[in-house]
Amino acid sequence: MTTDTPAYSPGLEGVPIAESALSLVEGQVGRLTYRGYSIEDLTGPQGTFEEIVALIYDGELPKPARILEMKRHLEAERGLTPGQIEFARSAAKLTHPMFALQAAVAILGPMDNDFERKVSTVTERGLSLTAKVGHLVGVIAQAVAGRPYEGPRPGESHAHMMLRMITGKEPSDLHTRVMDALLILQADHSAGNASTFTSRVVTSTKAEPESVVASAIGALSGPAHGGANEHSLRLFMEIGDPAGAEPKIQRLLEDKYKIPGFGHRVYHVKDPRSKVIQTLAAEVIKGETPEADHYQIALMVEKVATARLGDRGLFPNVDLFSGCVFEAIGIPIDIFTPVFAASRTAGWTANIREQWDSGNRIFRPAQIYVGAPVREYVPIDKR
Fold first, then answer.
1. Among residues 96, 158, 264, 294, which one is catalytic?
2. 225 burial class (0-12, 13-18, 19+ CB within 10 angstroms)?
């Protein structure tokens, strides 16, 4: 039987929105791969963000010479003008760092607005944005902390530059390696997540890449998406004492409180990124520290919530533990999601290129109208 009314899928669940070869999320088995390679392998001790950018853009594991070439390319492209730096610092004093980042990325755009004519530069523009957004996060973090601007140094890796600028300290080799792993973990997550889908939709209007990334940052800022890592750590801070965590978490669940960092639309087992994060946590969270307390609370959340919700397919996602690791390497809580954005810019911009390569038909889904039928207009003097 046919009908004129299309089927409605809330949240577009189960509706394919694109064909992509960049990354694959397999929710039933808890697997994430970039170009076919597992996230567990890619975040190994030798993994760097530059390697993953090359993999996502090239489609194959890069050789050492290609990794070095990508490192030099990102270093060459990360520069900002004095005006762009001052704008980002000023915005950071007026609003949340995510909104400051969104505005600062938007003004990276050109004076014209005709990307279709320049679409052959899509790879160049995407890599330039990947480099510059990381720099901007450092600029904003410095302004929020009240520190003067101190920009990138020659020869720095992307992870080292970001961590040094954000924390104001020279990062250890361990912290730099952990930062690389965090950037790798968040670089892409299929075309269907909210921010990447946003990037595809805005790209389909033939918008400039800077406008695309700015719109994706807006989508990522929401607590149901990228902002969950910040909200998770704030919850742990509110709970405070690991010794009293269990009854508090039980009470929250009884009150139907949605635990940030728990549950995922696609994963119905534990998020594989969460497992990697916990390996990193074991390396950097030591002794009697606030982050150690927060991590113990996160583990209790996992235990209690899994017992209550695991039979419904709800398990920890990447955000439950990531805030504890960010905290352990010195990243302030308001900068968690901007760091996520800097990493995901690699995936967003690769999706821009894929969207154009697909033919770039503008997104125009249908709606199901549930409003009033056609009615006769009543003049204002007769109402």
1. 264
2. middle
